[in-house]
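> example.struct
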């Protein structure tokens, strides 16, 4: 699937928002990708993630793990298309954990699934959890990769689309300087 088609579906589903946003990383942005708006349409989720599934099909994945909240539906849809298990991590006392009877072990090859990757903070927390149980994390799949060029990342990223959306340190945010008011926090992570 082409990047243009993914962006078309993000716009059609009203997943690309403009305004003043507080990201989970603490940074500010004038644009936010609310993938839940896309993922609420199963046919769109299937279409967008089929391209990602094609990118990872030969990695011998045994499970897909999505950090809650944003990665749960992405994990499920990718696992469905790949014919493997879908699990997720979630925060307990602000720490990522495997719960609900989910487990991985030595020999498992796990793909992490995210809706949007910006700084990779949730991803790396999930990597640590999975590796503590002996699993090998083989990469990260996402709907939107919005990492900046200076964002170092140790894992390969398989994205439906690469979005070049600027983000700013809160202290240097041009939206704040222009009087945009307090940023909205659409994500699920507690700050």
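> example.seq
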């Amino acid at each position: 699937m082409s990047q243009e088609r993914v962006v078309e579906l993000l716009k059609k589903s009203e997943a690309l928002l403009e305004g003043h946003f507080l990201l989970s990383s603490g940074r500010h942005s004038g644009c936010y990708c609310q993938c839940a708006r896309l993922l609420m349409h199963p046919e769109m989720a299937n279409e967008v993630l089929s391209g990602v599934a094609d990118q990872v099909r030969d990695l011998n994945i045994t499970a897909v793990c999505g950090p809650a909240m944003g990665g749960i539906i992405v994990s499920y849809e990718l696992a469905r298309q790949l014919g493997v298990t879908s699990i997720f991590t979630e925060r307990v006392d602000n720490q990522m954990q495997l719960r609900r009877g989910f487990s991985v072990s030595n020999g498992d090859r796990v793909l992490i699934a995210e809706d949007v990757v910006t700084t990779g903070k949730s991803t790396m927390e999930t990597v640590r959890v999975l590796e503590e149980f002996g699993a090998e994390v083989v990469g990260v799949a996402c709907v939107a990769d919005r990492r900046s060029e200076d964002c170092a990342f140790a894992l390969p990223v398989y994205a439906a689309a690469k979005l070049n959306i600027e983000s700013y340190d809160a202290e240097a945010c041009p939206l704040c300087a222009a009087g945009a008011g307090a940023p909205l926090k659409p994500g699920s992570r507690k700050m």
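> remarks
Strands lie at 16-22, 28-33, 63-67, 85-92, 95-98, 109-117, 136-145, 157-162, 167-168.
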